[in-house]
Amino acid sequence: MYFKIFNNEIENIINSITCNSDINDDIAAFSNAIIHSAHSAIGKTQYKGKRSPVPWWNSDCDNIVKKMKKAFNKFKKNNNPGDLIIFKKIRAKTRYILKTSKINSWHNSLHLLQPSPAQKSYKPRLKNSKFPLTAY
Fold it and tell me: What is the pLDDT of residues 107-116, one digit of tens each?
């Protein structure tokens, strides 16, 4: 489908191009014709950006993951058993920090959802929350 539209556009534009004495002008016109035909027939996609960050990620998580990657690269480069032990210790600490960060974030979000005496239920707040109940 796109190819037929592209071919029709190319034929129409190429037929309208006149030959000039300067070859550079002809090449530029031909290149612009191909690019214009591709844009009109195929179009461009829009990049929507990065994924939204998780609510529990913080600077501690960032720092420990960077530290773990650095330790792993050092071990990979040297292949030293001492570096492997250091990497495994940092990896364990990374798991612990990520796990506690997730738990603390969940507890904080639940604390915010606690119904006040004026409210009967917290369900309307959960509906608009970033934390789906089915995930936990």
Answer: 888 877 766 6
Answer whether 0.85 is exceeded by the pTM. no
Terminal alpha carbon distance of the chain? 46
Q: How big is the chain by its Cα radius of gyration, in Å?
A: 29
Say whether 121 sits in a helix, a strand or coil: coil
Task: Kindly list the domain boundaries of the chain, sorted by start residue.
Answer: 2-41, 59-135
Distance CA 81, CA 24 (A): 63
CA triple 94-96-100, angle to 5 deg:
120
SS (H, E, C) 17-37: CCCCCCHHHHHHHHHHHHHHH
In whole angstroms, give the CA distance from residue 88 to residue 77. 16
